[in-house]
Each structure stands twice: as structure tokens, then as C-alpha cells.
Amino acid sequence: MSDCIFCKIANGEIPSQFVYSDDYVVAFKDVNPQAPVHVLVIPREHIASSAKVEDSSVWSRLMSSAAKIARELGLETDGYRMVINTGEHGGQTVPHLHLHLLAGRNLGWPPG
Ligand code: 5GP
Ligand code: ZN
After folding, report:
1. Active site residue 96
2. Are strands 37-43 and 80-83 parallel, antiparallel or unpaired?
3. Could you tell which of 11, 31, 98 is best to mutate to test the pocket of ligand 1, judged by most ligand atoms within 8 Å of the CB?
4. pLDDT digits (tens, 9 = 90+) for 71-94
């Protein structure tokens, strides 16, 4: 989608700090990190939210990429959190599916 900020990040139009990239998925550092490690993992394909996923391979690619990034960043010992905000009550602000990978501090529960 031409006016989507995450599509522009995925295709390099908007600069970001990439931590992972393959044919289906890109991952980059969140511009406003909520933890010492805060990475966003997104499909290259524009999908507006988790509610709009039709092909289950999107999930396997997104989740397995996030787990791989967590392993490569050495997060497995202390742990990490994966979050997908969906819609208004879910706190979603960017309408392109994204998974937050958060780590580096003790994350509270329940969320706000
Ligand atoms: P949401 O609230 O939709 O679950 O998460 C959107 C996330 O995208 C937020 O954590 C926000 O900081 C991040 N974000 C928004 N615009 C940009 C941007 O231009 N670059 C990067 N790297 N992150 C962004
Ligand atoms: Zn998009």
C-alpha cells in the first residue's frame, strides 16, 4: 500500500534499523522503544491487522522469524514477550500487521 508507513519501511523508502530480513518478513527496531529490546516483525505483504490474515503461512513465518531473532539476540535465557495489538481496544496504531518482540527487563503482567 503506497501510503502505509510499514510498507515504506519494508521497501526501504523510510529508513529504519533492520535486524532481520527475508523474502517474506522484515524486522526493525521500534522508533519509540518500550523495553531495552523492542523489535517489530512485519510481513512484507500489506495486511491491515491480525484480523485480516487469510493465509496461515503468514503466522508461521511471522512467529518463527520472531523466535529466530530472539534466539540470535540471546534473549532465550531471560525471556521475552511477543505481542500483536489488534484494532482500537487492542491498542493498534499502525494498520499493517506487526509483532512486537520485547525484552531486556521484567515486563509486567497484566498489560495496561
Ligand atoms: P501498535 O501500537 O500499532 O501496536 O505499534 C506500532 C509501533 O510502531 C509503535 O510501537 C511505534 O513506536 C512504532 N512506529 C511507528 N512509526 C514508526 C516508524 O516510523 N519507525 C519505527 N521504527 N517504528 C515506528
Ligand atoms: Zn503496509
Report:
1. no
2. unpaired
3. 31
4. 999 999 999 999 999 999 999 999
